[in-house]
Design a protein that fits this description.
- With about 290 residues, the protein is α/β, with parallel strands linked by helices.
- It is about 40% helix and about 15% strand.
- It has 11 helices and 7 strands.
- It has helices spanning about 20-30, 45-55, 90-115, 120-130, 135-145, 150-160, 175-185, 195-200, 200-210, 225-240, 265-280, and strands at about 5, 35, 60-70, 75-80, 185-190, 215-220, 240-245.
- The structure holds adenosine monophosphate (AMP), zinc ion (ZN) and fe (iii) ion (2 copies).
- The site of adenosine monophosphate has 12 residues, from α5 and α6.
């Protein structure tokens, strides 16, 4: 199913395969007219994305970010849309997060060596390119070295939260991150809630996070089934969250991958997000299409 909007995508500035320009072009070609680039803990791809968006008169680009946080037993990812991504204190915080990602990736490569699955650090650096390093880059190096046959297998055998090569990130709580995002005028959305629902912790988390300023939840996501979407739509309504969504496109393949825009996200909640941004005076941070 094709949607006019996709609020969650990655580029080469984190662990996506496409440059921001390639991503914008692919999304536009797929019929997407409202896109947000939401790289992991980094905003450095936004200038290129905005330059690429300028080519299209009927295309809206929302500056975004996806921030990784931890709660006991689970990861919680928070999307920030309409952030003031030039804010110096925010940029400084992101720089420190990148340093911590780098140290953690080094430790994971060390662990893999101890497990008899050595990979050259230079290859991880190569796959990470100029942006934020993440587990998918280690996965690609594992595939290249012939230790596993796919990125998914690398996660299943070594890199997942319970995997033998996993190293946790510096702990950052979701409330702390929501407050960081609010400080730069962002609108905070809970990303991909499936695992949290399965863990039984979603209700309590939503109570705490809405209190902290959460305004949206991803309901239309990647391979979510119609009955899951219905469950999350009801939960979003209960907690007065805007039911948003995105493909979380990385371009790394795998059965769960969806193309940009290939999600059943209706336009009404996207209009609500835009209206909320306007209310907060944050709309000007997006590139708004002249003719919609
Ligand atoms: P990191 O930011 O280093 O913790 O890596 C997290 C990223 O790894 C997520 O954003 C996903 O893109 C990717 N990822 C997590 N689990 C899997 C998996 N099972 N298979 C493939 N990619 C995954
Ligand atoms: Zn990712
Ligand atoms: Fe995520
Ligand atoms: Fe993501």
């Amino acid at each position: 199913m094709r949607s006019l909007a996709d609020l969650h995508c990655h580029s080469t500035f984190s662990d996506g395969r496409l440059t921001p320009t390639e991503l914008v072009n692919l999304a536009y070609g797929n019929g997407v007219r409202v896109l947000s680039l939401t790289d992991h803990d980094i905003v450095d791809g936004l200038p290129e994305a905005f330059r690429a968006a300028e080519r299209y008169s009927d295309f809206t680009l929302i500056p975004g970010i996806e921030m990784s946080t931890d709660v006991p037993g689970n990861e919680v990812h928070i999307l920030g849309h309409f952030i003031d991504w030039h804010n110096p204190a925010f940029l400084d915080r992101l720089r420190r997060l990148q340093e911590s990602r780098l140290n953690r990736a080094r430790l994971m490569v060390e662990k893999l060596g101890q497990l008899g699955k050595p990979i050259p650090w230079e290859r991880v650096e190569f796959f990470a390119g100029e942006g934020a390093v993440g587990r998918p880059h280690i996965a690609l190096a594992l595939v290249e070295a012939g230790h596993v046959s796919s990125v998914n297998e690398a996660f299943n055998m070594y890199l997942s939260r319970n995997g033998p090569a996993y190293v946790p990130r510096d702990r950052l709580g979701p409330e702390e991150v929501i407050s960081l995002l609010l400080d730069v005028g962002g609108i905070a959305t809970l990303a991909h809630p499936r695992e949290l629902l399965a863990a039984g912790s979603l209700g309590d988390l939503l109570t705490v996070l809405t209190e902290a300023g959460l305004r949206g939840m991803e309901v239309y996501y990647q391979d979510y089934l119609p009955e899951e979407i219905e469950t999350f739509r009801e939960l979003a309504s209960k907690y007065r969250l805007i039911p948003l969504g995105g493909s979380d496109y990385h371009g790394l393949g795998g059965p769960q991958q969806r193309e940009p825009g290939d999600i059943p996200l209706p336009i009404e909640p996207v209009q609500k997000l835009l209206a909320l941004a306007e209310e907060r005076g944050a709309l000007e941070r997006a590139r708004i299409a002249h003719a919609r």
